[in-house]
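Quick one, T. Sequence first:
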Amino acid sequence: MKVLLVNGSPNEKGCTYTALSEIAKTLEEQGIETEIFHIGNKPVRGCIGCGGCKREESKGCVFDDDIVNQLAQKAKEADGYIFGSPVYYASPNGAMLAVMDRLFYSAGKYMQYKPAACIASARRAGTTATYDVLNKYIGINNMLMVPANYWNMVHGTKPEDVKKDLEGLQVMRILGKNMAWMLKVIEAGKANGVEHPESEEKIRTNFIR
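Structure tokens:
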């Protein structure tokens, strides 16, 4: 079993990475393989709602000049996910939102019924708003949200600060343990013939007719 941890910070080894590393360490102690994927600091296109990724012959997002399709391929093969973002103006940073929009549109069907969680990293405030925005991707995609003993956030301006946030690091460890537990429960269920619910075709109701 493998968990894909997405580092949405432009800083590869910054505060967000430090929090994700604590989760990854815990998962590996529980026998779960991990990979931290950095979205980088190069430009990422936003979704334009063209619908190209939904066409039968599509191999992913029509924009193939950034990291989204590369991430989508890894997401298809993963068993669980952690999405991490720094806080910019009380929200996930723009590149992370662009990645999440396109990832879930183009590869969301491969992530359904798998466990996932989101984490936020901030100097001081905006963590709960960021956490809420990221969790909406999980909630709309038939995914299983992994809990911890507090909202998934760490605080600090640099990695050394995050390492002093003992409560935040504990939340990351508990999140890792709960993710490992949930993955093992799902595997045990499948071994005993328990499969996820059958998907229904989406009903779309417009309020203005």
